[in-house]
Design goal:
2 strands; about 130 residues; two-stranded antiparallel sheet; elongated; single chain; 4 helices; mainly alpha
Length: about 130
């Protein structure tokens, strides 16, 4: 099954369902790698990294389910926005509930929201064709 960006005739490159899922997974892996490196999470052990990853992957899965992303996975609106916000909210809440001493800083929420917004929405925006001039 393939899905173009859903912008109508002459749509940009085609994004398959599997490729869209892979892009979102890569985004989260990069987010987790940079976050772990910046905050020394790797020093806390593999269990900590797995738990941290699980919280955000649960958020991503919830976002895919809530948006029914399999219908139009490359759409920026509403699919991408729902996936982005759900991933952030569920990931941050589960992180706070399930990871001992995770703590919470407003800066973490800002960076998480910004990074995931730029990346989860960014690849979807790039999948859209430029508007034709009239």
């Amino acid at each position: 099954m393939s899905e173009s960006s859903g912008t109508g005739a002459g749509a940009g490159f085609t994004v398959t369902l599997g490729r869209a899922g892979a892009y979102d997974v890569v985004v989260l892996v990069v987010f987790l790698m940079f976050g772990s490196a910046a905050h020394g999470s790797a020093d806390r052990g593999t269990g900590h990294l797995v738990a941290l990853g699980a919280t955000f992957f649960a958020g991503l899965a919830a976002g895919w389910a809530l948006s029914r992303a399999w219908r139009a996975p490359a759409r920026l609106w509403p699919t991408g926005v729902i996936i982005w916000l759900t991933t952030v909210v569920v990931g941050v809440v589960l992180r706070g509930l399930l990871i001992p001493d995770a703590g919470f800083e407003p800066g973490f929420l800002l960076i998480t929201t910004g990074f995931l917004g730029v990346t989860l929405l960014g690849w979807r925006a790039l999948a859209r064709p430029p508007r034709r001039k009239s």
